[in-house]
Amino acid sequence: MVRLGVRRRLRVWFDGTMDRGTPALIGWLGLASLLLITVVTGLSVLLAATETSRDGGWASVLWRSVLRTLDPGTMGADEGSPVYLALMLVVTIGGIFLVSSLIGVLTTGLNDAITNLRKGRSQVIAQGHIVVLGWSDQVFTVVGELAAANRGSRRSTVVVLADRDKVEMEDQIRARVGDTGRTRVVCRSGSPLKRSDLDLVSLDTARAVMVLSPAGDDPDIDVIKVLLLLNNRPWPSARPHVVAAVQESANVAAAKLAAGRHALVIDADDIAVRMVVQSHRQSGLSTVCTDLLDFAGNEIYIRAEPSLAGRAYGDILGAFEAGAPIGLRRADGAIAVNPPMDTVLAEGDEVILVAEDDLLIELAANPAQVHADAIVLVPDTKVAPDRTLMVGWNSRADRVLDLLDRFAEPGSAVDVAAPNPPEDALAVSRENLTVGYQRCQPTSRRDLERMELGGYQHIIVLSDDSAEPDHADDRTLVTLLHLRDIEVNLGEPYSIVTEMNDDGNREVAQVTKADDFVVSARLISLLMTQLAENRHLYEVFADLFDASGAEIHLKPAGDYVQPGAEVTFATVVESARRRGESAIGYRRRDDADQPPFYGVVLNPRRSALVRLDAGDSVIVIATD
């Protein structure tokens, strides 16, 4: 074993203290300054006793030496022997080096501290905040909606943790979201997949945690791992609820198992497919869902109304002047969306309503007038088999066909227009639907014209998920322009429903006058934000998006009231009630391509007069 000498040991010890950073350097400089001043003062007492006595003794000389180290100009008035002046010069020159070094150390330490802060590695100290784990384009929608939701709050905080540069994240949020009002957005650099990095965002004091799917292949793997980390974390008694979305339905079961009972897992793939299919049958559905899910228009509220206890749900539908009931929340927490009309509201139960704001819900002092003579008693709508063209093919197309088969009338047909035939989909035998294939490049005008589009009632344009989202939207836009121009030339109308990746491209695509645009990524982001703000809405939305429960429907207005008749909206509500449905609004066909509402009017006042034509729709919550 090699033994180190005393000098070597001291050198190793000194180097170790220097490695401790700015505080250690400041300590050594202070010690050197104290040593210099003490030595010079002692030598002054021994070698220049006369000047020392003249200047007030050793204490005064000590104080003057301190001043000389800080201000070299202090030496200008010194008088005395050469020895005394030499000692004062030594302490002044030493002070210059020591003070300069101190300034350099402080500057370097301050720069290092600022650099570390900009790296986003400091711990967030907050309470009642919402944590967003992960980074994708969804983060801009989430942050914007959270800012809108908390606009009336005194102060709110959103903390974003992602494996990206903190300054870059802040710049992108500032550019894409803009002013967040009273909501403070804090970004931290770290991986949500690392337990140590999760400690940066004060999860224990958060109100809710949102797990976003990252960009790239197999995003659900990262989501499931984050859910595992959160579920196995040692939480305090009051833990935040977790909201996450998985992109593939096959991973939902694994995600729920990993998340545990405190997390809400959304099947993004299933919702996207459902929106496409339902919008194909009733255009405008995605617009209605967007209005219900964002914080800019109408939202879903759960409200206690003790004055309505003991009344049947059918009576409650007409009890509000502002606010559209869609269901009940039982005292035990059970949710009933559009229950039977004779369901009684018991004490402790709450009403689920669509309203612009919780404060704007208003009970009617007197029931609004109902124009009973304008109510259509027997709808004459006849559902017949139809032909649908599906332009393009992606990972959701198989499920779109399966769901179309469930809703289609027997004898209906779907033709797939894509560059390559989907062999597996064509080989499946379906109950109500016949699936055919035509070779087509979706952006080719010649290929589209060759398919005799006039024979189709509906066209679905699927987004190309093999291309970048922006480029896929550009291709979709070209296809839509061709389809609409062909329709104008043929004079035979058909509805067009399409997928878009970016909601910003929706307004650009309005020139195509497509009947509906399904922006599934935005819908999922809005849904997650709603659940982060109020987890009790999970069962409501689960029922609305479940095929076996009550769903949002846009049905012909002529099935409810006489076309062209001026009636109160209470008349529409009453007509829907007689059919076991809850009416929440209507859509005007003439305004279907006019942003931002695209003809959708939700929660009109019951006494408001409306005139619905044959091409308009009534928006209802119904089981079929």
Automatic annotation (TrEMBL):
Bilayer disposition of the protein: Multi-pass membrane protein
Cellular component terms (Gene Ontology): endomembrane system
Localization: Endomembrane system
GO terms (BP aspect): monoatomic ion transmembrane transport; potassium ion transport
UniProt KW Nucleus keyword: no
Gene3D superfamilies: NAD(P)-binding Rossmann-like Domain (3.40.50.720)
Entry-linked SUPFAM superfamilies: NAD(P)-binding Rossmann-fold domains
PANTHER family in the cross-refs: ION CHANNEL POLLUX-RELATED
The protein's name: Lipoprotein
Biological source species: Catellatospora chokoriensis
